[in-house]
Design a protein that fits this description.
Layout (H helix, E strand, L loop, with lengths): L1 H19 L6 E2 L3 E4 L4 E7 L7 E4 L5 E4 L2 E2 L6 E6 L3 E6 L8 E7 L5 E10 L6 E3 L5 E2 L3 E11 L4 E6 L2 E3 L2 E7 L2 E11 L8 E7 L8 E6 L2 E11 L10 E10 L6 E4 L10 E4 L2 E4 L8 E9 L2 E9 L11 H44 L5 H21 L1
Parallel strand pairs: 2-10, 12-20
Antiparallel strand pairs: 1-3, 3-8, 4-5, 4-9, 5-6, 7-8, 9-10, 11-13, 13-17, 14-15, 14-18, 16-17, 18-19, 20-21, 21-24, 22-25, 23-24, 25-26
Helix pairs in contact: 2-3
The protein binds 2-acetamido-2-deoxy-beta-D-glucopyranose (4 copies).
The site of one 2-acetamido-2-deoxy-beta-D-glucopyranose (NAG) has 2 residues, from loops.
Length: about 400
């Protein structure tokens, strides 16, 4: 009984020594990463403490707090919690200069320390796009450059053309503690780029909720390209016809000019020009001819031609153009089929004849029927030649 009691006491004593010793009485800290402008919370803990003071000091070894006593005059630094087992302070409005190794000291003999590295993230500025000429001309080669300052670590820049990602050439330059990142995009300007939105986005660890981006919309000037579309495929006398001069250009072409056979439009009562459209209220055979429209802006001129052939509804019969076309197709199919039948018939008849006439000759020295035919054909050729030379 006494022996057992003694053993328990001994165990307690050993445990006590362990508690007071190296394992329990040691400051514990953690590295911190804080975005500039935010607040850093620095916590130092001791599991078992026999009323020994704790202290936080900054990278330049200045004491910030000794227990609950503030040591450095800096409004940004405040006490959060001070007890024998914890010393927590906060540093608000963090700047890049606050980055470094912070030390928590426990004033045992000898002093025990723990080091926490405070990493400050530099927030990239809103990117700027440079190199845009407004307006750009079709065929121009331009280089768009997107730049953002102040990121730490270096930000990533991404380009999008109308929401679709495209690859740019990135360059990173260090300036002090932060980085200046640029990304350039080489473009051969096309008329399709007119109105295209080019967006430069910044990706960075410090921008989780508010991505930074800038968009520029391209304006491209280009010469018009004219093209005539018609409302009827087979215009007939008396029908209504609309011709449209489709001419896209930027700036928008001046009113288009219509001519007929190189001269002015005749009879403006039945032909009406309205904007880009030329309409015939009722077609007449006399409208036959070559119609041309000309569109131009300060970058160039383009023209298109349309040859009008007014069909005579009487000459085409009552069936109309579509029936005529189907009739034509049917006629061609019938004709081709007939030709095939005649050709096949003649081919088969000729072959059958050759086979029959030569079978006897070839069969003598040939092992089978096929070889017999080949031999026979060879013979006829030779005979033909002989006849020729006689
Ligand atoms: C804390 O940061 C320092 C310096 O960057 C590094 O050497 C150390 O390994 C880090 N400690 C932990 C626990 O991440
Ligand atoms: C980055 O540095 C390179 C080389 O030092 C220099 O040629 C280039 O102009 C710099 N770019 C920017 C955007 O400062
Ligand atoms: C076509 O024009 C001629 C002369 O202008 C006119 O006599 C004729 O009636 C017209 N034909 C039709 C179908 O309008
Ligand atoms: C219109 O053109 C067609 C084909 O070129 C021709 O057969 C017809 O006679 C022309 N009509 C007139 C009025 O010139």
């Amino acid at each position: 009984m006494i022996l057992k009691h003694h053993l328990v006491l001994t165990l307690c004593a050993v445990y006590g020594i362990l508690l007071k010793g190296s394992s329990g009485q040691h400051p514990l800290v953690q590295n911190q990463t804080v975005t500039e402008g935010r607040t850093a919370i620095m916590t130092c803990r001791v599991e078992y403490n026999d009323q020994t003071s704790l202290q936080w000091s900054n990278p330049t070894q200045q004491t910030l707090f000794f227990g609950n006593k503030k040591a450095l005059r800096d409004n940004r630094i405040e006490l959060v919690r001070a007890s024998w087992s914890e010393l927590t302070i906060s540093i608000s409005e963090i700047t890049l200069a606050d980055e470094g190794m912070y030390t928590c000291s426990l004033f045992t003999m000898p002093v025990k320390t723990a080091k926490a590295y405070l990493t400050v993230l530099g927030v990239p500025e809103k990117p700027e796009i440079d190199g845009l000429t407004k307006p750009a001309l079709e065929g121009d080669e331009i280089t768009l450059t997107c730049m953002t300052h102040g990121s730490k670590p270096a930000a990533n820049l991404r380009w999008f053309r109308n929401e679709k990602e495209i690859k740019g050439a990135k360059e990173v330059n260090a300036s002090g503690k932060t980085f200046t990142v640029t990304s350039s995009l080489q473009l051969l300007v096309d008329r399709d780029d007119d109105g295209a939105a080019y967006t430069c986005k910044v990706d960075h660890v410090s921008l989780l909720q508010t991505p930074q981006q800038t968009t520029e919309v391209l304006e491209v000037h280009y010469a018009p390209r004219a093209l005539i579309t018609q409302s009827l495929t087979f215009p007939q006398e008396g029908q209504y016809l609309k011709l449209e001069c489709v001419s896209k250009g930027n700036p928008s072409p001046d009113p288009v000019l219509w001519t007929k056979d190189g001269g002015e439009l005749p009879d403006l009562e039945r032909m009406i020009v309205q904007g880009r459209e030329l309409t015939f209220s009722a077609l007449n055979k006399t409208d036959n001819g070559t119609y041309r429209c000309v569109a131009s802006n300060h970058l160039g001129t383009s023209s298109a031609e349309y040859i009008l052939y007014v069909y005579d509804p009487n000459a085409m019969g009552q069936r109309g153009p579509d029936h005529a076309l189907i009739g034509g197709v049917v006629a061609v199919v019938v004709f081709v089929t007939l030709c095939l039948i005649i050709f096949l018939g003649r081919y088969l008849a000729r072959h059958k004849g050759t086979y029959l006439t030569n079978e006897a000759k070839g069969a003598d020295d040939a092992p089978d029927a096929d070889t017999a035919i080949i031999n026979a054909e060879g013979n006829t050729h030779a005979e033909g030649k002989k006849e020729y030379f006689i």
